[in-house]
Amino acid sequence: MKFSPRRGSTNSFYLLAIGSLVFLGLLCFLLFNGRGTRTASSGGTNTTSERTTPGSTGQSQALSMYCAAGMRYAMEKVVQAYEQETGVLVELQYGGSNTLLNQLEVNQTGDLYLAGDDSYIRLSQEKGLTVESLPLALMKPVIAVSVDNPKNIRTIDDLLRDDVKVALGDPGAAAVGKKCKRLLSASGHWGRLEERVTQSGVFKPTVNDVANAIKLGSVDAGLIWDSTVAQYSDLKPISAPELDAGLATIEIAVVKNSKDPTAALKFARYVTARDKGLEIFRTTGFQVLDGDVWDAEPEITFFAGAVNRSALEPIIKKFEQREGVTVNTRFDGCGILTSTMRGITSGQAGSFPDAYMACDVYYLSVVEELFQDSVRVSDTDIVVVTQAGNPKAIKSLQDLVKPGVRVVLGQPDKCTIGVLSKRLLESANLSYDSLKSTGNLVNQTTSSALLIPQITTGAADAVLAYRTDTRAEAGRLTIVEVGSHLAKAVQPFSIARSSDHKHLGRRLYATIARSRDEFESRGFNWRLDRTASQSSPRSNSAAATSDRSESPR
What we know:
Blueprint: H1 7-33, E1 51-52, E2 59-60, E3 63-68, H2 72-86, E4 90-95, H3 97-107, E5 112-115, H4 118-126, E6 130-139, E7 141-146, E8 166-169, H5 175-187, H6 190-200, E9 202-204, H7 207-216, E10 221-225, H8 226-229, E11 235-238, H9 241-244, E12 248-255, H10 261-271, H11 277-283, E13 287-288, E14 299-305, H12 309-323, E15 326-332, H13 334-345, E16 355-357, H14 362-365, E17 375-387, E18 407-410, H15 416-427, H16 432-437, E19 441-445, H17 452-456, E20 462-466, E21 477-480, E22 488-495, H18 502-513, H19 516-521, E23 525-526
Parallel strand pairs: 3-4, 3-5, 8-9, 8-10, 14-15, 14-16, 18-19, 18-20
Antiparallel strand pairs: 1-2, 5-12, 6-12, 6-13, 7-10, 7-11, 16-22, 17-20, 17-21, 17-22, 17-23
């Protein structure tokens, strides 16, 4: 008999089929659009789904980081915490610092590079592979042995004994190997130790490989970082005077070819934040440096003398865009700015600046106890400015007291140009009072930016102003050189001692220091040479102040 299904049964079949298709479609959507996975195997390649990274410049893949093997344990904890807080994936590729640097140079890809010693970061910057670098922690090499130390190893000389088998980091691959080779070459031990290791020991590509060899008992001792020993409960460190001078600074750098440098910088800030990544590094045995307070979208306050405005504004805009931060900048007369600072320190409302760039060193000196060491970035000349054609025939400072010459100067207690003008006049046996007594001093301004308009509007016949302020109206002005070594304003940059974002302030300085062309195009004279201007500011800790260039502490 032929089977004839009922209509209700057919409908149920169709509904079941449609429901199954919908379920499969939903499952596929979740698989391809859900959270990606990260694998963190040594030398492995990690994959994740494409996503929008909070705080990034747009659609991007997960961040990719070359990570020195000695930082593996701490970095995995940092990455896990960062992913939980932000949803951003970070892929880690481990290896020796030099091996990773070579991979970075060949691949020309990635977002971040964390080396076991800052010498590799400097080299990566010299090669044009990385840009910004943020200091993280310190470590030094030690002799590592098992806890029971059956060979009773106490010194470097003990490593040369026939009954001791030693493992070392490969100087051509691992930062600890390179560091130990330099230190023990200086002490006269390296040649003999290298021969012993070649005969009966082993060279390892990473510091973790050396530690594991000691742990497994395949060697009796090795030279590794003190922070690495702290991560192995069955190992103990032995300090050696030959190694004690080998303090290494760990830095994380942003790769120049990063597809999302803003997201990379944000993660780097997290890693080096005192209340985030640095706390994890501290608890895993590292001697951490002083870091900034974590803020996903930090804001800093920047006070700057008015003379700096034309050069700084475009620089600050680029810095904000790249870092993904906000710089609240106030341009004003330096007398007003320093008075505001004093008021804030006395309890008045306001945000004390994280950084300050004065019109001249004079107005930094009055608040110098509130700031770290400064850097002199640029300078500009002070000139007499008259209307085009110089109708009053002013040729020198003495001509400012000629009858009928209307003069406008800056107020000494409000702005730097006022202080410097007062000093200039006194050097020429003139004074504000002498100009007032003749009736020639018709006005005083609170900022250098207000002086040139006095000429262009016809309100004055002469002003003392910065040469840089004359460029915009050059066709309507005549400049008279003063001819005195005192006719110069020098612009210093400094970071506040109270700032919670000192490293961010140093990177702002580094951006300024790479902007020589911007300053010179505005008429400033550059005080940082081109080589020095490429270096980023460094930590002001005792172990990280060996700057290769002048930079603010």
